[in-house]
């Protein structure tokens, strides 16, 4: 059986085509389109016609690529960059009418739960009580659980790109006052979720997302070419030293560091501050960099619970959004704030 999943994120649209054997998704082809949608958001927060046009072209290309690899139309979803746009309904309608895809919009808590599932399957039961951290462009997800699904999951508006646009506006490198303001805001918003993780005392803490992967590489973990099975561990003390370097460098200079790609260089400092802050406040001294994340979580849930689960996202609004951009179910999930954590 061959299946594909399509992830519309703040920076990139990513397609993964996988073969499924014994319930495990094995990659056969991946492709990406660098749209940087977050940089095209207008002052009113809308994506607008031009960004929507770029998105439609990328999604059409992804559908064609999936078919070339003998996969059905992808399980297509979008995260914060579309979820937070006031013109989300227009974007979803345009995508459906011009690509045939029904782009599901996942709330932040759903992202955390599905990412946890991917991480749990990769890490296995030997990892014990598991804490998960994921830094995206628009949001930060955290979860904790002892089983297949988390007992606690939350999303906060602490994405690396979001914070960079909000706090680092006057100079390059950012002014010390801007860095200090970002630290205060991050610590305040992480207060409650970090207290929950510290109280649970996880046996293993994992990090997913490109932001954490690049920070790990900056701090000395093995490069991606060594494959997914090499253990990669990010230590809090090393991340602290990395922040001391990043804060003194311009965006162009950061792009020359190991692991920091040019498109993500600007947001690397904000991502590092979020990562170090949550580790320190949660009492976590090291993180295992996990290669499975949200895309794998969706594939696993689809394989384990069947195609009806994916269809139900739209019909019942359990985790998805309808084509009108509104939640369809009786219990819509909201992004958790630091002052109100489930």
What do these coordinates show?
This protein has 342 residues and is of the alpha/beta class. The chain has 13 helices and eleven strands. It has a six-stranded mixed sheet, sandwiched between helices. Strands 3-2-1-4-5 form a five-stranded mixed sheet, sandwiched between helices. Strand 1 and strand 2 form a beta hairpin. Helix 1 packs parallel to helix 3. The C terminus is likely disordered.
From the structure above, extract its key features.
342 residues, alpha/beta, six-stranded mixed beta sheet, five-stranded mixed beta sheet, globular, disordered C terminus
Could you report the average pLDDT, rounded to the nearest whole number?
88
Largest sheet properties: 6 strands, mixed
What Rg, in angstroms, do the CA atoms define? Answer: 19 Å
Write down how many β-strands occur, each being a DSSP E stretch of 2 or more residues. Answer: 11
* Series of secondary-structure elements, N-terminal to C-terminal: EEEHEHHEHEEEHHEHEHHHHEHH
Shape call: globular
Output the strand order for the largest sheet: 8-7-6-9-11-10
DSSP helical segment count: 13
Strand content: 15-25%
Structural class: alpha/beta
Which stretches of 5+ consecutive residues score pLDDT under 50? 316-342
Measured as a percent range, the helix fraction is 40-55%
List the SSEs and their pairings.
Elements: E1 2-8, E2 12-21, E3 24-34, H1 48-68, E4 75-78, H2 80-83, H3 88-99, E5 104-105, H4 108-123, E6 130-135, E7 140-145, E8 152-156, H5 160-167, H6 176-200, E9 204-208, H7 210-218, E10 233-235, H8 236-246, H9 251-254, H10 262-265, H11 268-282, E11 286-289, H12 294-305, H13 307-316
Parallel strand pairs: 1-4, 4-5, 6-9, 9-11
Antiparallel strand pairs: 1-2, 2-3, 6-7, 7-8, 10-11
């Amino acid at each position: 059986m061959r299946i594909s999943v399509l992830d519309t994120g703040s920076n990139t649209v990513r397609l993964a085509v996988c073969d499924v054997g014994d319930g495990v998704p094995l990659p056969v082809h991946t492709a990406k389109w660098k749209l940087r949608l977050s940089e095209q958001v207008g002052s009113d927060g809308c994506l607008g016609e031009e960004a929507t046009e770029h998105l439609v072209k990328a999604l059409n290309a992804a559908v064609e690529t999936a078919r070339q690899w003998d996969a059905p139309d992808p399980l297509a979803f979008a995260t914060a960059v579309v979820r937070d746009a006031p013109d989300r309904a227009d974007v979803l309608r345009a995508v459906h009418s011009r690509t045939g895809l029904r782009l599901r919009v996942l709330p932040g808590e759903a992202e955390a739960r599905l990412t946890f599932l991917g991480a749990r399957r990769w890490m296995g039961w030997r990892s014990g009580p598991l804490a998960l951290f994921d830094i995206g462009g628009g949001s930060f997800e955290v979860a904790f659980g002892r089983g297949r699904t988390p007992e606690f999951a939350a999303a906060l508006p602490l994405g690396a790109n979001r914070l960079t646009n909000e706090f680092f506006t006057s100079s390059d490198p950012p002014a010390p006052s801007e860095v200090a303001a970002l630290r205060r805001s991050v610590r305040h918003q992480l207060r409650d979720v970090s207290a929950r993780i510290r109280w649970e005392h996880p046996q293993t803490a994992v990090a997913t997302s490109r932001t954490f992967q690049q920070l790990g590489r900056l701090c000395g973990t093995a490069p991606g070419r060594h494959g997914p099975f090499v253990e990669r561990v990010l230590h809090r003390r090393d991340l602290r030293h990395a922040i001391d370097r990043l804060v003194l460098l311009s965006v162009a200079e950061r792009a020359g560091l190991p692991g920091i790609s040019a498109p993500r260089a600007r947001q690397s400092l904000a991502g590092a501050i979020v990562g170090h802050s949550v580790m320190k406040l949660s009492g976590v001294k090291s993180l295992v960099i996990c290669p499975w994340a949200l895309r794998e979580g969706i594939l696993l849930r689809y394989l384990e619970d069947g195609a009806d689960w994916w269809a139900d996202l739209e019909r019942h609004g359990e985790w998805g959004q309808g084509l009108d951009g509104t939640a369809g179910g009786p219990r819509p999930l909201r992004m958790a704030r630091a002052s109100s954590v489930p």
